[in-house]
């Protein structure tokens, strides 16, 4: 068998990058192209190839240590390809695939399509690269590669005032938090003299300058909080998700959040783990507080919304709080790998159910029906299949055993129990119960309420339908097939 | 044995197919599909009767019970989740009840359900899948998936096809039962966590045996006895909502009144039994020491008082109703109170009778709701004051209605009589658990039958007999054959079980006696 060169381990990310460049090429040849088939086709093929390659690599064990115990690392250890990197490449690429397929219909009659697709794939490249980043400098570059296209994507519908305003807000908060993050990196560098994660960890002995390191770590927490839409940098999220085209909301709230978390997992579990750091600044405690506050803020705010998209945006904040358990329950015992793994599992399941839910919103926007709960009244009489899919997403998000969300939430609960952080588990249960209330409102509107007079749907767009139904199918299948996800995630987490 | 898996798979595929069938054919198609689990479950019942005598209790001797199958499914948080099914003398009759009632309920839907039919029948079959799963699963997670899986179809069935206040009723049902599930979930996991490393799976038999072997350890500084008590109370509250018992019953009348007839049949006939079935499995088998009062002495008496109060309170509420469906709904609360009393007596007849009452009440209440439904289909009213003398116009329906009502009152040679006699026999002598209060509580509970007779006789006399009068603008002629046929089938089953209770009671006894042995009740 032919031995592939080492750099090919980065194939999922490289495929995404290549796709982005091809799309950019199309854009430069024909800037006003509205050849939807070509654009969505290229983007879709590229993302499917990336997802398939990730799965292939995961199954083949590319990300597992070789016989000499070494993981594949590139560019002087600045990039690493382990199971976690592949896990997140798969997550980002799958979400991207769904989004691209849905965009085929959603963007059909909109302007700047070539730019739209190339920016989306570009952002995905950054997110996927973030999963491999093994040093603070590379992580920052990858983070910006993911963020800058996102700002533009939120505002891609230039004539929509809400979109533009949301993008501006997103950009300002993003720029601020990028600055904070970068400053934090520089302080950590100042304290340790290294940027590479393992080197940072090695340099963190008792003699480190406590003040500089402490502030640096807190600033990095801030950067992570922005990217994952967690308290205290969450307030851009509802605006941006509401203002952006719905497929982009799906992309940002699922893939971009996951990218933020993989960064956090790597920085904190690899570089900043250890008593020397925790003695200076107990970031585990900080994450515990943030997790609980984020859960409550997200869910309570979601419960008071009248606009479905905004409700989902706030619920996305709430889910960031759940995943934060993956960091907040790292109490240093033997349970750590499981705790991190639980966070990863929830992100993956969330990637499908939340993307699906936002793509359903995209479908509704495509039909031009309206955005409030009332506008959804009686939708099931016109589109029962899509509404059944949405019901699956919502109940799975709430944690009912109808989709993978049940097991991933249960794993988070078990993680809190195993690590002895009971209060986090209690907050998880309370918030899940609360979330059922507002998710059910949508189900009730769709199925039970009478449709408004004149509600009639004439077009059933094939791309959006495919994306929504595939997402629903995967969400359901993740219930019986959860073992594959949980095994991979736990292995990946144990390698850190 | 793959019988249960086949049952689940065929019903699920049938449900999915029903969603895709055109509205015009959905009713007949779904009914045809439902005959597969019907025949399957009755066949299994027959096989059980002939081949599985004396196999014991599914939680205490899981390796011997019928139709057992175990496959590892998922590794989750250090526990192995299994596909694990098996039937014992408690679950087998309930499974057969599910098969029978579903098909009959589907037939009784032909007349009243006229919109979005493929969705209605699809959801009914989806609910049947979950019910089959609830009664056959022996792994907690596998069971829980079905337990919750019942709620979503039920919520939609009430919410979409229900009466005028259906939205309120559906949401109330959904919120009550989901919060209850959460409470139960917390209670159950209190047990699981305190068992620590002594269990490797979340199989209900394994957990039961670990509990019986005394493997529980203290948790977060709370002593074992307190943990057991906590878990017991949380699970009891969680399941009590489903049963329902006072004061957690208020969702039931709303749900019943608003639900369409076939849904009421399923709700009263099978869904309420999920609560008592789970109580029997979890509270009275796993934690039989708490249930018999060896942790907190007042516990059995407290539960018995709740049960007896439900009997009387439900009956008195039924007495105050003017709506036939509400009368039957409230009397369900009363009947389920007997089940609680029988369970907590913790004697062979008490527990066996309680289980028998689940089957019997499933048949009789299903019959009553169907009969009320048929009357409503024809008269378009359920108010006692709006009609009288129906006996002349719809003799068959009325005849069956009267027979069913007598079954409800406990007429000998009908299943209700056998069930109640067993329960009273069991609880009257339950001095080990209820002490000197046993005869007192039993006597009070018996008084419930008098009230039942009171309101049923009054309602029948007002509506069915006397001169014909109807305050709605409908011409009344007899009900269609396919409306009356399910009633007749159910009535025959009620009589069959009344004449030969041993068809079920024997296997029930074999399944509950082992519980009494570990709990020290025998």
UniProtKB/TrEMBL annotation, chain A:
InterPro entries per the UniProt record, alphabetical: NADH-Q_OxRdtase_suN/2 (IPR010096), ND/Mrp_TM (IPR001750)
Entry keyword annotation includes Transmembrane: yes
- Superkingdom to which the source organism belongs: Archaea
Q: Which UniProt keywords apply?
A: Membrane, Oxidoreductase, Transmembrane, Transmembrane helix
Locate the transmembrane regions by residue number: 6-26, 38-64, 84-104, 116-143, 170-191, 203-226, 246-269, 276-300, 320-340, 347-367, 379-400, 421-440, 460-479
Q: What is this protein called?
A: Proton-translocating NADH-quinone oxidoreductase, chain N
Q: Specify where it is mainly localized.
A: membrane
EC number per UniProt: 1.6.99.5
């Amino acid at each position: 068998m032919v031995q592939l060169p080492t750099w090919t381990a980065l194939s999922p990310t490289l495929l995404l990058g290549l796709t982005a460049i091809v799309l950019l090429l199309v854009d430069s040849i024909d800037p006003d192209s509205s050849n939807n088939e070509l654009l969505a086709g290229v983007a879709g093929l590229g993302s499917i190839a990336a997802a398939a390659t990730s799965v292939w690599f995961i199954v083949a064990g590319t990300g597992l240590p070789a016989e000499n115990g070494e993981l594949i690392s590139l560019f002087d250890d600045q990039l690493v390809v382990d199971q976690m990197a592949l896990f997140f490449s798969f997550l980002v690429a799958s979400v991207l695939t769904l989004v691209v397929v849905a965009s085929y219909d959603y963007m059909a009659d909109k302007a700047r399509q070539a730019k739209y697709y190339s920016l989306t794939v570009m952002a995905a490249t950054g997110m996927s690269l973030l999963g491999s980043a093994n040093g603070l400098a590379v992580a920052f570059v990858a983070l910006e590669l993911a963020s800058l296209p996102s700002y533009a994507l939120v505002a891609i519908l230039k004539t929509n005032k809400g979109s533009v305003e949301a993008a501006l807000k997103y950009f300002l908060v993003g720029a601020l938090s990028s600055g904070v993050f970068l400053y934090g990196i520089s302080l950590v560098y100042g304290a340790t003299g290294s940027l590479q994660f393992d080197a940072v960890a090695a340099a963190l002995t008792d003699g480190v300058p406590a003040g500089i390191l402490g502030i640096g770590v807190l600033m990095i927490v801030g950067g992570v909080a922005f990217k994952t839409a967690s308290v205290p940098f969450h307030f851009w999220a509802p605006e941006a998700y509401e203002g952006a085209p719905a497929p982009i909301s799906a992309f940002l709230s699922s893939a971009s959040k996951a990218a933020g978390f993989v960064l956090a997992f790597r920085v904190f579990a690899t570089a900043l783990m250890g008593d020397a750091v925790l003695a200076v600044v107990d970031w585990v405690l900080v994450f515990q507080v943030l997790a609980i506050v984020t859960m409550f803020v997200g869910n309570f705010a979601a419960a008071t919304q009248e606009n479905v998209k905004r409700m989902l945006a706030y619920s996305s904040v709430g889910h960031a709080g759940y995943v934060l358990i993956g960091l907040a329950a790292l109490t240093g015992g033997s349970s750590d790998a499981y705790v991190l793994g639980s966070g990863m599992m929830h992100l993956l399941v969330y990637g499908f159910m939340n993307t699906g839910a936002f793509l359903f919103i995209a479908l509704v926007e495509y039909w031009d029906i309206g955005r409030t709960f009332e506008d959804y009244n009686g939708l099931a009489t016109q589109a029962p299949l899509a509404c059944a899919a949405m019901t699956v997403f919502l109940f799975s998000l709430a944690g009912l055993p109808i989709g993978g969300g049940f097991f991933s939430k249960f794993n988070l609960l078990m993680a809190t129990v195993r690590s002895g952080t009971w209060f986090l588990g209690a907050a998880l249960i309370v918030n899940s119960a609360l979330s059922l209330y507002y998710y059910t409102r949508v189900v009730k509107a769709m199925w039970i309420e009478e449709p408004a007079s004149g509600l009639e749907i004439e077009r059933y767009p094939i791309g959006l339908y495919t994306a929504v139904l595939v997402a629903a199918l995967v969400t359901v299948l993740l219930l019986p097939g959860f073992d594959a996800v949980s095994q991979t995630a736990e292995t990946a987490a144990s390698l850190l | 044995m793959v019988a249960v898996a086949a049952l689940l798979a065929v019903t699920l595929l049938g449900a999915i197919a029903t969603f895709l069938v055109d509205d015009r054919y959905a009713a007949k198609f779904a009914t045809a599909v439902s005959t597969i689990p019907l025949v399957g479950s009755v066949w299994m019942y027959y096989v059980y009767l002939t081949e599985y005598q004396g196999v014991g209790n599914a939680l205490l001797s899981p390796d011997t019970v019928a139709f057992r199958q175990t496959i590892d499914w998922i590794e989750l948080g250090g526990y192995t989740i299994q596909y694990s099914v098996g039937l014992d003398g408690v679950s087998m009759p309930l499974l057969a009840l599910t098969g029978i009632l579903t098909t009959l309920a589907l037939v009784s839907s032909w007349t009243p359900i006229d919109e979005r039919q493929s969705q209605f029948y699809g959801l009914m079959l989806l609910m049947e899948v979950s019910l089959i799963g609830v009664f056959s699963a022996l792994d907690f997670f596998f069971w829980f998936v079905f337990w919750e899986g019942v709620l979503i179809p039920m919520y939609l069935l009430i919410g979409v096809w229900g009466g005028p206040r259906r939205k309120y009723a559906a949401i109330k049902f959904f919120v009550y039962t989901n919060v209850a599930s959460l409470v139960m979930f917390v209670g159950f996991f209190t047990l699981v966590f305190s068992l620590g490393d002594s269990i490797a799976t979340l199989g209900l038999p394994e957990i039961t045996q670990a509990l019986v072997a005394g493997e529980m350890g203290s948790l977060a500084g709370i002593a074992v006895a307190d943990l057991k008590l906590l878990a017991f109370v949380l699970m009891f509250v969680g399941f009590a909502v489903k049963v329902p018992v006072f004061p957690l019953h208020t969702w039931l009348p709303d749900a019943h009144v608003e639900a369409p007839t076939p849904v009421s049949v399923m709700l009263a006939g099978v869904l309420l039994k999920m609560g008592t079935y789970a109580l029997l499995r979890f509270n009275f088998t796993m934690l039989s020491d708490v249930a018999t009062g060896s942790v907190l002495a007042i516990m059995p008496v407290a539960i018995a008082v709740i049960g007896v109060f439900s009997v009387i309170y439900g009956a008195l509420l039924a007495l105050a109703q003017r709506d036939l469906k509400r009368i039957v709904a409230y009397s369900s609360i009363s009947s389920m109170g007997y089940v609680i009393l029988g369970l907590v007596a913790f004697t062979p007849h008490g527990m066996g009778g309680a289980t028998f009452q689940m089957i019997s009440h499933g048949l009789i209440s299903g019959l009553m709701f169907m009969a009320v439904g048929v009357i409503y289909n024809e008269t378009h009213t359920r108010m006692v004051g709006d009609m009288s003398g129906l006996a002349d116009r719809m003799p068959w329906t009325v005849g069956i209605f009267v027979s069913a009502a007598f079954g409800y009152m406990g007429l000998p040679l009908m299943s209700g009589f056998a069930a109640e006699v067993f329960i009273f026999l069991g609880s009257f002598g339950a001095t080990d658990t209820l002490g000197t209060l046993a005869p007192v509580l039993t006597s009070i509970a018996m008084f419930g039958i008098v009230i039942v007779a009171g309101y049923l006789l009054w309602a029948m006399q007002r509506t069915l007999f006397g001169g014909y009068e109807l305050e709605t603008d409908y011409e009344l002629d007899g009900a269609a054959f396919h409306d009356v046929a399910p009633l007749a089938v159910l009535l025959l089953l009620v009589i069959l079980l009344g004449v030969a209770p041993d068809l079920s009671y024997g296997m029930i006894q074999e399944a509950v006696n082992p519980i009494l042995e570990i709990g020290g009740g025998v």
